[in-house]
Fold this sequence. Notes:
Low-confidence stretches: 366-370, 436-490
CATH class of the largest domain: Alpha Beta
Amino acid sequence: MFESLGQRFTKVFSGLRGQINETELRNIQAEITAALIDSDVSVNVADDFGSAVYRKAVNQLELLKKSINPYASVFEIVNQELIQILGGNQRRMQFAKKPPTIILLMGLQGSGKTSFAGKLALHLKSSGNTPLLVAADLARPNAVDQLKIVGEQVNVPVFAPAAGNGVGNPVLVARDSINFAREKLHNFVIVDTAGRLGIDAALINELILIKKEINPTESFFVLDAMLGQSAADVAQNFHAQVGFDAVVLTKLDGDAKGGAALSVVSKTGKPIIFSAVGEKTSDIEYFYPDRIASRILGKGDIATLAEKTAAAVPQDLTEKLTEKFVSGADFTLTDFLAQLGAMKNMGSISKLMGLIPGMNPKMQQQVSGLDDAELVRTRAIIESMTPAERENPEILNGSRRARIAKGSGRAVSEINRLIDRFSQAQKMMKQMKNNPGKQNLISKNLPGLPNNFPAGLNMNAPQINSNTVANKRKKSRSGNPAKRALEENL
């Protein structure tokens, strides 16, 4: 997401050199405004953003002229304005003082409400909660059945009218679900309502009645980010007629421009709370304005990367690899296989690489061609080996390699390249173990992520900044939590 906008901002600042003046600031304002409009940001919002950047920069012009790198200061002004236009402080979900917490989902048909309902239910369940999904969409054919399928996928119960699809009163269904949740001790109720192809009186009246009946703790407007400039207008109309507390942006993984995210907050005055970034039930993220601004400006998103790593890499695997690295024991193909499993849980390679700082347009283009299936093929090769072969690849003679190739469905040449690169990676890790000055190179890559993928293979180990695991853990207890998570899991 935001690829085209990020590239335009990079282009704006990459060519800036020399003295700064009002004329140059006007040029920057014009280029930034044009970049926003081209990325589906509404014209009024883009004009206001460009004017705010110019105004703040002009007010600091005398200081900027004395600065060694004045354009870095302008860049920071743009960063702060982006954070503000995206909502400022990150918005967390509110909880009811007395359970259950009731969450009402609304939006147009096709916005992704039902899919998001399942993702939110799984997100809450993974935190130890007991959510209940409610099928209050009785207008769309098979909507109830669709929510039941989603509920089965995330193993969360669904409350639905007994008569099935298209039958019943959605207001009564929503009301009865609250009583059911209290009886069965569900502490969250997620109400999935009907949508329309457009905003009409029937839809609005139904939502108003449901909202009045259940008095939700949170009302989320689920918005398809791919609507572009019209997305913010749709959200504004819904808020004016029904009202909601926050926005959920879906399909951000398919929206290269991302203009909806920059317009919707300004248009509605309501923050974005969640974003859906993929088709998997786990593809849900809290929306952090500062992190999104950092991605747009090409500074990456280390905090999100650290959280994904911490969630994907089991603690016992981290400790095992740390112990191996400290003791000097060989990193084996068995260890690498475990890391491949962690990589699979973290999502696609291209998304993860997009969180790394310094990804310029050329690098992003290379990343877009990365083949996630290569990890699957590599895993198939390793799983076709015996335990002894994984622990000691040196025993892999010609006949063993031929057997592995047949078992994995790959060519012998692929097995040869994998073993050669793995041997090089083992040597590199031993060198870094003996040379602490080189250990920081490890932190530039993800666990198990190939280097120059798929042409090379770089088996990573945890970064060690002291001689013992105990000292490492002691050091990691202080400082920024995101940085601490990154140090403990990369």
